[in-house]
Amino acid sequence: MNARGRMSMAQPSDAQLGFRPSSAPPLNPGVSQWVSPPILAHYRQTAASAGSAGTGTPAVPAVPPSSGRRGARGMGGPSMSGDVVANLDAVPGTPAGMVAAMNGGVPPIATVYFPGDSTSLPARARAQVRDAVAAFQAGGGAGSVKVVGHASSRTANMPVERHLEVIFQKSQARANAVAQALIKAGVPADRVQIEAVGDSQPVYYESMPKGEDGNRRAEIFVQG
């Protein structure tokens, strides 16, 4: 028997491993009226991938943190272009160069994590907010500060439409919490932009609680 034959015998199929096609239900068309396109696209993509024959993959352990368009909503000032940057180094096999490239070459000045699925600004984030304000002021205050809120994909058992609404609301609340802190710390309200993307931009696998915590975050970008 040649080497290729031995390899095929050594690798059981997805069916033998117990992986099954996704049973995710189709979305109600009405959900698109209040859920942002990135969140809808993420749901459809993951459901389709899981449902494709032979594409099932096992859960991957989470990587601990290291240190969707109705979702876009400004508190004032001009609209800011560019996709949101994500700490893709946390996902094995992702090219590091994509981290900055996803936001037009601009990395976040800070990433605030919200433990325990909270939407309230944690005390330890105050220093990150001060650093972001200092970076904004160092540019003469002529730029803008963008806050992007994120959520994990975990919720209690509920209808799909309600699930999407909940994760969107949590990501929006996190962006709002950071934005309010930035304004109180000295950034003019008309220079602050917020965006909520739900769970459409995960940077950690959620097979373990640490991964969920890493995706419950808000990223701060200073653009000038």
What proportion of the residues is helical, as a percent range? 25-40%
Oligomer: single chain
CA distance, first residue to last residue: 64 Å
Class derived from helix and strand content:
alpha+beta
Shape: elongated
CATH superfamily: OmpA-like domain
Unreliable segments (pLDDT under 50, ≥5 consecutive)? 50-101
The CATH class designation is Alpha Beta
Biggest sheet architecture: 5 strands, mixed
Q: How many structural domains does the protein architecture include?
A: 1
Order of H and E elements: HHHEHEHEHEHE
In total, how many beta strands? Answer: 5
Separate helix tally: 7
Calculate Rg over CA atoms.
20 Å
CATH topology: 60s Ribosomal Protein L30, Chain: A
Mean pLDDT across residues: 71
Named CATH architecture:
2-Layer Sandwich
Could you please describe the fold and organization of this structure?
This protein is α+β, with helices and mostly antiparallel strands and 224 residues long. It has one domain: 60s Ribosomal Protein L30, Chain: A (2-Layer Sandwich). The protein has a five-stranded mixed β-sheet with strand order 1-4-3-5-2. β3, α6 and β4 form a beta-alpha-beta unit. The longest helix has 25 residues. The radius of gyration is 20 Å and the shape is elongated. It starts with a helix and ends with a strand.
Describe the structure concisely.
The protein is an alpha+beta fold and 224 residues long.
